[in-house]
Amino acid sequence: MGLSDGSSLSAPADDAIWRVSPYDRLVVGVDGSGPSTGALAWAIAYAADHGTELLLVHVVDDTWGVAGADYMADAQRRGIHVLDASRRRAVDAGVAHVQTELVHGRAPSVLSGAARPHDLLVVGSHRTGFLRGRAFGAASVYVVAAARSAVLVVPNLPFEGRHGVVVGVSGSPASDAALMQAAREAARTDQQLVLIHARPPVPHEESSSNGEYRASAARDVVARASAHALIDIPHLDLSSRVVADNIAPALLTASTDAAMLVIGRGQSEEPPNISTVVHDVLMNLNAPVLIVP
Predict the structure, then answer these.
(1) N or C: which end of the chain has fewer CB within 10 A?
(2) What does the pLDDT read at residue 70?
(3) 134-149 pLDDT tens trace
(4) Rounded Cα–Cα distance for residues 55 and 181 (Å)
(5) Domains and CATH numbers, the chain
(6) What is the pTM of this model?
């Protein structure tokens, strides 16, 4: 259940905030797999649109060194081939600044270390789906936990037919940062911005007055978030929903067919040092997810 509100005004001037990329570089992990190819495609389109530099990184996993020198030499040759093919693809698409790096190590630590705080790290992930594929989802959790930058995790899913940029809003600083990045992305791609505020279902024993107070507070959070997004980008097509559910399931449900889900990274005192919401979303990925620090 929830409430919706839409807004559509005239487009802003050419120098509007959403036309300027917030990232110094896009750092993309490439290995020739399906998920990696999807991540590269997204990054190429973004870099060509904004003139942003691309750094393409291929990691040769040193743990396979036990297979012998010949295997490692072959892995390095394959990595060079993947980087050359990826670079040609980016240049052919109009990306002006493309760098490549071949690095030995473990992929999560190498990729997270390659991205500086003002970069965007773009990585692919095998599709997990809700409550499935936890082994595949774990790698992206480690990358996000170690990264100093924003991270976009792109699942192995078709991009066609997806619509809307979904963002979770709660009124926290992390939520506000995610909201503004989501608003930029919605404006850039001419998509509707969908604000989701999740609140746990009201217990049966809770009084009606207490339940109404919580519902009113939730509506206030959404109203403030909507106003905040429209200040800098007044032409946004925006809708909002208050959902009676836990946060991660609410966001996953809302983003089933979304072009992107945006969430704040948050913190946890326990490893892997990211919020439980980010952890649960990454373990049940069903759309490209941008995690904002």
Answers:
(1) N
(2) 76
(3) 333 467 888 998 999 9
(4) 21
(5) 21-155 (3.40.50.620), 165-292 (3.40.50.12370)
(6) 0.85
User: How many other CB atoms sit within 10 Å of the CB of residue 11?
Assistant: 11
The span from the CA of 238 to the CA of 234, in Å, is 10
Q: Which two tokens stand for residue 159?
A: 């991009």
| Distance of alpha carbon 193 from alpha carbon 163, whole angstroms | 10
If one counts every other C-beta atom within 10 angstroms of the C-beta of residue 109, the result is: 13
